[in-house]
Amino acid sequence: MPKPIHEADYRQLMEVLRQARLRAQLDQAAVAEQLGVPQSFVSKYENGERTLDVIEFVAICGILGLDPSQEIAVIGRRPRLRPTAKTSN
């Protein structure tokens, strides 16, 4: 199965969350406790095994002291791969 075109962006965003967690001197268990989820939840999104929905992302940003809109804006400024238009002959 082909990889989604947004995979690199998503991995970058998850790395931002992981680095922010480390800067905040929190382990995965501490973040999970504040979210009310198992530690494996944090591990899986940081490792790309699980995706986050917007509500989860905002909650995690709150715990880590990040502004969600600023973090998304960084991703929005990255160059995008554009699907090539099919030409008809």
From TrEMBL:
Domain of life: Bacteria
Ranges that cross the membrane: none
Matches recorded under SMART domains: HTH_XRE
Pfam families, A to Z: HTH_3
Residues of the signal peptide: none
InterPro entries: Cro/C1-type_HTH, Lambda_DNA-bd_dom_sf
Residues in HTH cro/C1-type domain copies: 17-72
Full protein name: Helix-turn-helix transcriptional regulator
Biological source species: Pseudoxanthomonas mexicana
Taxonomic classification: Bacteria, Pseudomonadati, Pseudomonadota, Gammaproteobacteria, Lysobacterales
